[in-house]
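#lab-general

N.A. 3:47 PM
ok so I finally got the sequence cleaned up, no stray characters, all 182 residues accounted for. can someone with queue access submit it? mine expired

B.Y. 3:52 PM
send it over

N.A. 3:53 PM
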Amino acid sequence: MALQSEPGGEAESAVQRDAVDAITGQWNRERPDLDTLPMAVFGRIYRVSRIMGDRMEKEYQRYGIGRGEFDVLATLRRSGAPYTLSPRQLSATLMLTTGGMTGRLDKLEKAGLLQRSPDPGDRRGLRVTLTEKGLDVIDQAVGSGLALQQAAVDGLAPDEADLLAGLLRRLMAAAEASGRTG
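B.Y. 4:20 PM
back already:
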């Protein structure tokens, strides 16, 4: 079994030890039979996600929205002009229950960021469309959020950032595949 190498190798020499190193070091000391490399990988993914998620949430608040509302507006914006989807399409894309989606849509409609209207192709259906104000808010919020993400990624060389994105894509696919049964 390949155990995690001791910190201080060439790649780690430029970066100080972190809390994940301390945790895996303790486990290596107490349970040397365990390979703690997966713990180090997922511990850092979790911590980066939490740090950046908190920063993004704070940034979105400048625009009067939270992460959930951002997701709805961003989904409509990414759909392309006329920035219109059904509540069912939004729910499926965001993996939300219809009740959860209704609450978000109510809040965003009240703020004037989107509007709901009857679906001309289905008398029982609705269409959700970004308003001009909603389009302006999401365009500003996505730009600000990407600037925060870029500032974090700037700690890596461009080729390192590309490599990391590719490795994380492969890790995500492996994690999804390992969770499937049958």
